[in-house]
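Two proteins were folded this term; both appear here.
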Amino acid sequence: MGGNQFGTIFRVTTFGESHGPALGCVVDGCPAGVPLDREALRGELQRRRPGGGGPATTRHEEDTPEILSGVFEGKTLGSPIAIMVRNTNQHSGDYEALRDVYRPGHADWTWEAKYGFRDHRGGGRSSGRETLGRVAAGAVAKALLREYGMRIQAWTSSVAGIAVPGPQDPGFDPAEGEQNPLRIPHRETAAQVLRVIEQIRAEGDSAGGTVSCVVHGVPAGLGEPVFGKLDALLAGAMLSLGAAKGIEFGEGFAAACGRGSCQNDRPIPAAVQALPPQVPGLRYQSNRAGGILGGISTGMALEFRVAFKPVPSISKAQQTVDRRGTVRELSIRGRHDVCMVPRAVPVVEAMTALVLADLLLLHRADRIRSEPYGPCP
């Protein structure tokens, strides 16, 4: 009956189903006095919401948040923060033909095997819409992290096998990533990927990709030995997302092909150290471990990448089975993403914020004096 809660001190419970009346979250353990802007919260949900164009589903939801408790005059009270978003554009009838049929690549069979019963309307809790509660909670965590100078930025780094230029490459522009529905921070690549996405849509198929994330301002010392390591917690957070299938930190799997003499730490030239955090280039090349050593943050930028499989809901005909074991041909109708990677960008940021907020509060209890972090203003 568990599995809906996340965190130790900064604790989050999410609730709701894709076609139920509402979804949301309850955040407990957030310190009092953290500025929480309702419009900033709404903005995070808008980044994730369906109906944004491009590869996204045609389901249109406003996703307007209602803060039910825990906030007064724009600041957190220290009490549980309840946030709810009502569903207004469900087309549950689109799923009636799937009541007794298991969709290929979905959690239909596994949920029924576990509970003996399932919500066939869009997958219920296994739907990607479940991430709405995570993004709402992540907005609260981001507000806390901003008080300590931490900034999280994720972007689409590949789609359908097309790699997006990184921060060290010409033309990389984080602002551009928020101006196109693909969340690709490189204008020429975004146009190329959009053409490919439209072709995949015309074929009734879908595409996967990766999301990269960088966190600036992470202090050294975050992470709990031995089973609460920063990278382990981030991996667990990312792989709790329905379509996530892999994660790598820093150079990731490419590091397995190198030698220790190339992968180990080395002094960073003074000229590079003097660069402001937003300047790309050598600063990124020198952070091979992704900002984590021994499961604890090093004080450098935190860097990782998450891989997402293609959306399994496709209109192309497939074979599957029903509850009686009869082989059926299935063409899934309804409103679905061609590629959900762009909408995963704010979700990756949210889960990163939840992990860091929890570890930050845990770290404040690690020693009597913790001047580098200070009291929450």
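Next, the second protein.
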Amino acid sequence: MKIAVVILNWNGQKLLEQFLPSVVAYSKEAQIYVADNASTDDSISFIKQHFPTITIIQNTENGGYAKGYNEALKQVDEDIYCLLNSDVEVTENWLEPIITEFVGNPETAIIQPKILDYKNKDYFEYAGAAGGFLDKYGYPFCRGRVFNSIEKDSGQYNNKAEIFWASGACLFIRKSVFETLEGFDESFFAHMEEIDLCWRAFNRNLKTVYIGTATVFHVGGATLNNTNPKKTYLNFRNSLFTLTKNASGNLFVLIFIRLVLDGIASVMFLFTFKFQHILAVLKAHISFYKNLPTLLKKRKKLLQKANYYNTKSVVWNYYVKGKHHS
């Protein structure tokens, strides 16, 4: 079984300088690729000079995470893709338990390792932590991270567990599965496209697994941090996209309740004086309405499977019941 570690890059020379050494040192089992989204910095010349064994794939435009990977992976022949953010430090032997799982369990389609915070290494990292789940209304949360409450890693998630979605910061997927799912939905551009991908896999009865004995450290927010209104816009919009395409049940009721909950989130932004984020939520809803006919067409072509959610409302559990852990 051959594995490819594919790092998507856009003007990230400084990140490549910092994090490529660990990937090269600890990924002897893999072929390493850097897929470049038409960078205008010196990323390509830096790689050629310092890491000549890395294969460079040059995309013709910055199509974001979704299109960037869709285009690049057409040129990758290995059996397993590891989609790795450029701001991730990997650890010694990180690939061994991943390969063991893929070889030993043919039903496993997608894998996520343990993702810890590079800046605070005793804690889980926001984007993925110990594997992701959804509530009924499409809000994502993780083992080890619910909204902004992040757990310290004390070995509580060192196990193997079936999860609903794997983080795009470090996502392993069989090439055959990626092709069957027809890759990422490029309308997402960035953020939550991995949840959409994993949801489509779930609806086809494909398994996503967390392996707690493989560890990486993620900086997070290297492209867009959590305080950036553009990230708020993409997260709210793309979450609605994902829910509309993939959720089973009465879609009208689900979307209506979700829009109300988004409105409540906007009130919370108001109380914390995050006025640009209120505007971001409004723009997200406008974009959702504009794209709704297309989303409904996509929905008709996809499968929808019941029991996709881990809990009815993570918002209610978190803000009313005070349950800050998964």
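The CA atoms of residues 109 and 207 lie 5 Å apart. DSSP finds ten helices and 14 strands in the chain. These notes refer to the second protein only.
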